[in-house]
């Protein structure tokens, strides 16, 4: 098959969506498919940027520039008629979008215009995300009221829904969320299949269905492979650099240090854990705009000398960070899957998790603990693991078993199966007598 992957974030940006798109491209090509990635260049003149001179010609970049809304997403510049013609000439069998912004909407437009099977992937929980970034309201309104109508052929009911979205709400967050839930539902209704990466997202998307907009939802977590373990020398150097001895009991987080990740709760938990565990240390591996705030909180905490910030590491080097940890803690309530949970599980780590439906690689009492969203309960669960090396080993082995069921190859083959299904049934109307057949197929991914 010839497959087009449309994303509003890609290299040189580093985030979960970028890893997913890169992984799928590699795995689908290994399976014999021809894959094109449509993405922003993060520069106005991509053709003259040396970094892209020798890039794979299957990566098609658009001129773009940074906006003030999200650091990971650019405003992209392209002439739709010319790009639609170019996409048509590629004769794609499937279009798969990862972001419901400009490049993603171009993919939807191309799919609708050229009658190409369309898959949409719910990669970011924008509904919850905007609670921490209410200033994006003008951008959301512009996306829905200007970019969406220019990109996708609208029906009468679509126009009526967009007009309703412009009615002000009591607060910016509530208004943002109302717009996002309706806009996502409208956008996804254009697809042949919508992918939810977790049970949490599956339920969220299902709850947004209404009499005018419905779509098939498939629960299909992204596949994640293990990051290579470090050598003893590399691990020793990492520990020495960051003041971690082999006697230390290290718990922590790896990933984007964003406000939406709920990370202050770990610093508050350290205030309790540190009192009873003199060798306990808290490790943050990653970077983003909230890091300075976290460092200020850490400096004011009871055990500031035992809280470590390493900054960002290249993904291929993260094995040393996981190897330095005894317990991995994931406090976020805003993620759609939690890629790092899979990496931690591959590294045989016990896991403490708050959002219990965000991942399939954590089982309460078997390889980790579900904690309440407060520092006291997190401290209690982390302490239970730090104080029991035997339990950490047992939980770690179960973590590895669970992670092994969601590898890149296994999940990509499931995605390939979904592609083939929608290609075969594209354009069919799902009559009542066909509903059970469709439901049975979708259950095969769980």
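^ structure tokens above, recovered residues below v
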């Amino acid at each position: 098959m010839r497959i087009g992957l449309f994303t509003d974030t890609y290299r040189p940006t580093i985030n979960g969506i970028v890893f997913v798109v890169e992984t799928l491209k590699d795995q689908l090509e290994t399976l014999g498919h021809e894959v094109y990635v449509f993405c922003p260049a993060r520069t106005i003149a991509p053709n003259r940027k040396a970094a892209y001179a020798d890039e794979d010609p299957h990566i098609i970049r658009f001129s773009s520039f940074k906006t003030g809304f999200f650091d990971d997403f650019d405003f992209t510049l392209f002439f739709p008629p010319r790009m639609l013609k170019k996409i048509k000439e590629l004769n794609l069998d499937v279009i798969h979008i990862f972001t419901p912004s400009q490049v993603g909407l171009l993919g939807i437009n191309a799919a609708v215009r050229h009658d190409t099977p369309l898959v949409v992937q719910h990669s970011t929980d924008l509904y919850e995300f905007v609670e921490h970034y209410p200033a994006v309201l003008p951008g959301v309104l512009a996306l829905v009221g200007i970019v969406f109508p220019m990109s996708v052929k609208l029906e009468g009911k679509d126009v009526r829904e967009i007009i309703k979205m412009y009615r002000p709400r009591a607060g910016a967050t509530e208004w943002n969320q109302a717009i996002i839930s309706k806009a996502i539902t409208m956008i996804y209704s254009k697809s042949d299949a919508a992918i939810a990466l977790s049970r949490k997202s599956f339920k969220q998307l299902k709850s947004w269905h209404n009499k005018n907009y419905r779509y098939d939802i498939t629960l299909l977590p992204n596949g994640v492979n293990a990051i290579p373990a470090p050598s003893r020398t590399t691990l020793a150097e990492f520990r020495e650099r960051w003041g971690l001895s082999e006697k230390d009991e290290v718990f922590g987080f790896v990933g984007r240090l964003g406000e939406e990740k709920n990370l202050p709760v770990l610093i508050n938990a350290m205030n309790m854990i540190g009192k009873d565990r003199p060798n306990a240390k808290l490790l943050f591996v990653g970077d983003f705009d909230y890091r300075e705030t976290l460092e200020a909180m850490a400096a004011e905490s009871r055990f500031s000398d035992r809280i470590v910030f390493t900054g960002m590491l290249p993904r291929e080097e993260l094995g040393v960070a996981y190897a330095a940890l005894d317990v991995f803690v994931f406090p976020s309530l805003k993620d759609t899957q939690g890629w790092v949970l899979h990496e931690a599980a591959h590294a045989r780590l016990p896991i403490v998790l708050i959002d219990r439906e965000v991942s399939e690689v954590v089982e309460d009492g078997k390889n980790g603990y579900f904690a309440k969203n407060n520092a006291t309960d997190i401290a209690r669960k982390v302490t239970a693991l730090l104080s029991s090396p035997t339990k950490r080993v047992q939980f770690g082995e179960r973590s590895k078993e669970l992670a092994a069921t969601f590898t890149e190859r296994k999940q990509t083959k499931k995605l390939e199966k979904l592609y083939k299904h929608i290609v075969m049934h594209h354009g069919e109307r799902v009559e009542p007598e066909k509903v059970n057949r469709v439901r049975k197929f979708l259950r095969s991914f769980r």
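Confidence is low (pLDDT under 50) at residues 429-435.
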